[in-house]
Amino acid sequence: MSITDCKVINLPKISDPRGNLTFIEGQSHVPFEIKRVYYLYDVPGGAERGGHAHKALHQLIIAMSGSFDVVLDDGTEKKRVHLNRSYCGLYVCPMMWRELDNFSSGSVCMVLASNAYDEDDYFREYSSFLSAMKPS
């Protein structure tokens, strides 16, 4: 997997004067079955989240409210993506180091994940991630 596999996905948006509606269907709008949903909120100013990679997990990261940046790193290349629309999500493939920062006040980050939580799926040390990315 490389950084080019991570893309912003435009989600369906039904506009209505009473308020807009967006929906997400696993294996239709995202390239995986959704098995877990979690969200980050009340992130203090200047704080960072993430700082890890997953061995097998696929994710879609969405700014439900406010904005934040996702910094992706495949061990060779880095890319910063600014998320600020609740109808756009960033698909993050496995074996991609990610860091979230630049949270606006009141922002909410929702993550759709392909699997339940599994600590063994994580690289929490950047050096271990880089070692795993080296060709054998």
TrEMBL record:
Keywords recorded for this protein, A-Z: Isomerase
MF GO annotations: isomerase activity
Disulfide bond in keyword set: no
Domain Sugar 3,4-ketoisomerase QdtA cupin residue range list: 5-133
Name of this protein: TDP-4-oxo-6-deoxy-alpha-D-glucose-3, 4-oxoisomerase
Enzyme class: isomerase
Gene name tied to this protein: fdtA
Keyword Isomerase set for record: yes
Enzyme Commission code: 5.3.2.3
